[in-house]
Amino acid sequence: MESIDLLVLRTARDWLAAGERVLLATVARTWGSSPRPTGSMMALRNDGRVVGSVSGGCIEDDLIHRYTTAYGGSGLKDGAPEVVRYGVSADDAHRFGLPCGGTLELILEFNPSWQSLDELLAHLDDGRLVRRCLAVAFGQVTLQPTATPEQFSFDGKHMLNTLGPGYRMLMIGAGALAEYLATMALFNGFKVSVCDPRPEYIETWAVTGVERIVGMPDDVVRDFAVDLRTCIVALSHDPKLDDLALLEALHSPAFYIGAIGSRRNSQLRRERLIEHFGETQASLERLHGPIGIYIGSKTPAEIAVSVMAEILAAKNGASLPSEFSVAQAKHSIESVASSP
């Protein structure tokens, strides 16, 4: 399953290339509560078809009524982009389904250049990070490959949106937990790969849409072109495989690195990496283990939910309270159980 940003851009490009009229809407600024973060996009076709979203649905309905022929309107126009605001008053917030006090500002691009979108998508499909700058007054778009992600911004004149290839997940070990985790990662828009040199595991892999890689994990991680949108999860339960992958991953820019294992096994792993491979307490700060957030999970499916939640928190820059840690939660439970 493709990430929603790529799906919106690709659909808009394809509609425009087919001669359709298209509106590309982007959430530019928000005040108070908002259903969608800044940078969220949707593409609206002249006949009312929509891909992506900028709200919970009511603003999309208003845009369809205003700008398409779906309800007998005049259809999408040409011209410079427009900035529109929803939810300024309490009545508007209620009408458009915004949370209490929420205000949303959108940038509407009418029939953007399909050639520009095609160029952008070519960069993204090649794994490049691209800075897209829109001059709102004229509708002029410039694309600049970059190595550094920037926060989405809009100063009233220029919209800057750093877009990148879809998020990727590399799993080491093709067991049952990996299959559940892969399914959830695909559902969340990740491109998923699984590495396992053991034929009895990799040859029985059952989840479609996942790239299967046969090879030693350290070589696979080294050749994977790991970037800031990559997470690496060691799930084999075999130190010879997991440790090798982690040694390479820890010196990569991956946004999340984790390994399955109990508290004892996780501690033993850290000791091995320090004693035998020259790692330090500082270099191991990025290593999650035991992985996941504490939800009392027991089955592979439940553990996968726990792990995916922690990965998404890291992806979204959400800081989790210490009591969400598996190790901390279990220590607290044991302390309570052993107290008189």
Brief sketch in words of this structure:
Residues 169-311 form the XdhC Rossmann domain. The protein has helices spanning 4-17, 58-67, 90-95, 114-125, 176-187, 199-202, 217-223, 239-249, 263-277, 300-315, 326-338; strands spanning 22-31, 41-45, 50-52, 82-86, 103-110, 129-135, 140-146, 153-154, 158-163, 168-172, 191-195, 211-213, 230-234, 256-259, 287-288.
**Domains, number:** 2
Instruction: Give the biggest beta sheet.
Output: 6 strands, parallel
CATH-defined topology of the largest domain:
Rossmann fold
Q: Quickly give the structural class.
A: alpha/beta
What percent of the residues sit in helical stretches (DSSP H or I)?
Answer: 25-40%
Please tell me the CATH architecture of the largest domain by its name. Answer: 3-Layer(aba) Sandwich
Domain XdhC- CoxI: 15-87
Domain XdhC Rossmann: 169-311
Pfam family, one: XdhC_C
Protein name: XdhC family protein
